[in-house]
Amino acid sequence: MKVAKYLLTVLASTAVLAACQNDTEPEAESDEETVPVTDDGNTDASEEEVSEEQENDLNTEADSSDETEEIEQTNNDSFNKVIDQAEDIESYEAAVNLSAAIDDEAPAELSAEVSFINGDPPSLQLSSNGEDRTISKDGHFYFYTGEEWVNATESVSIDSLFFVTYENTVRAIADIGDSLEVDTTDGARTYTYEGTNRDVYSAFEELFKVSFGTVNTSEVESKLTVEVDENDLIRSIEYSAGGEDAEGSFQLEGSTEFTTFNDVEDIELPEDAVEE
């Protein structure tokens, strides 16, 4: 593809997940959420252009996080039970994986284990390969550079760090509930979708905070599987999408597995965190 395309991933801040994957120290005040990708796989955009995108994205996120709308009931009675049950979720643990690619280039991949405790503000712990990498508690945010804990409270908020919360997952599925098929076994349900409904892709594009920029995603094939247990709790989602425009192809894969509900131990700030 001749036109540079922006692969925006706000599953977690790029700086934090770069530390998760590479154990390298990011530059100061680096909440980069935009990875410019060209047809040769290189990042090839000016700092001014990327900076402008970041500022606009962060402003939008701040505005949208001020108000949390109640999840609306759907025409799917069985999934309405999941919506009702979500109100009782105080904490959970999850594993989140995301992969996005343009053409035949190597995909951009993000992976994290998450502990989340609801609150005002909520507490969050992100880990990778069994090691703590990011911790947020009582409005204080720290990330691990591979050598030390850094206080980034002034430059990063939890709302811009992690979007694939349980509430947001339920909301995304509720938005497309009328398009899902359901199979029930001993009280547990499997919701599935396969097709080209643009609303389905839009729901998960928003959930995973991924955009392929100038790529035309109007023609996209989606496949979704949602596993719900007998207690009306979402246990896992598997989503994939792909398509082509006049210049090439794109592919998105995302999965989340919720492993623990309402049994998460208190999240503590690291003892050796760097104090400013």
UniProtKB/TrEMBL annotation:
The keyword DNA-binding does not apply. Residues 22-80 are annotated as: Disordered. It comes from the Bacteria. Residues 24-34, 41-72 have a biased composition (Acidic residues). Keywords: Signal. Residues 1-18 form the signal peptide. This is Outer membrane lipoprotein carrier protein LolA. It comes from Corticicoccus populi. The lineage of its organism: Bacteria, Bacillati, Bacillota, Bacilli, Bacillales.
